[in-house]
Design goal:
Rossmann fold; 6-stranded parallel β-sheet; 10 helices; single chain; PGP-like_dom2; 205 residues; alpha/beta; 8 strands; magnesium; phosphoglycolate phosphatase activity; HAD_2; HAD-like_sf
């Protein structure tokens, strides 16, 4: 294994409150249901399809909504929190000789600004998918451009769709238990590894 790819939201960054705030601006604008802060934990037990139904939001509208959503996200970027312990994980992984990348469905500008704000300089590349279910294509592109085999790469993410994307490509994934999807949502996809604290990542890599 040579490269480790991280997801961003829910894996490296706790952006839950900012996500809720950005969504609620969209919801008020287009008359969707708003998120109440007290229901954030229960939402982790729902699939994306179940959440979209709950908030009266048709998923086919995502491509038109996402650019606005991430602009609102950027306005509150200072409120996105680096997961405690992840900066040390990145440092340790770099010292072990791994190349670190981020693949996310957030915007590249948001992620680069966050990394700069938090003094993170050991991420070699940030790649983003314009579609929330398009990560497998971005991972394949990364493998091809970096001349890597599937066995050379490990992905670290928090959502059901991350696991599905990795299985499509044929790379292993560590699912982290502090993100957007609970164990109930992801266990049917049987991720290769499950961790519940950042330090556990270092036991695997």
């Amino acid at each position: 294994m040579k490269h480790i790819i991280f997801d961003f939201d829910g894996t490296l960054a706790d952006s839950t409150a900012v996500f809720a705030s950005a969504w609620n601006i969209i919801a008020r604008k287009y008359q969707y249901r708003e998120i109440r802060l007290e229901e954030l934990d229960s939402l982790k037990k729902l699939s994306i399809a179940e959440r979209s139904k709950l908030f009266n939001f048709p998923l086919y509208k995502l491509p038109t909504i996402l650019p606005q959503f991430y602009r609102y996200y950027r306005q509150s970027l200072q409120d996105v929190i680096l997961i405690d312990g992840m900066k040390n994980v990145l440092k340790e992984i770099e010292e072990q000789g791994y190349t670190i990348a981020i693949i996310s469905s957030n915007s590249k500008d948001n992620i680069l600004a966050f990394l700069k704000m938090n003094g993170i300089e050991n991420v070699s590349q940030v790649l983003c998918s314009s579609r929330i279910f398009g990560k497998d294509k971005v991972i394949k592109k990364y493998l091809k451009e970096s001349n890597l085999q599937t066995s050379d790469v490990l992905y670290i993410g928090d959502e059901h769709r991350d696991i599905v994307a990795c299985k499509k490509v044929g790379i292993q994934i560590i699912w982290v238990g502090w993100g957007y999807d609970s164990i109930e949502v992801v266990q049917s996809e049987n991720p290769d590894y499950k961790v519940f604290s950042p330090a556990e990542i270092l036991d695997i890599v």
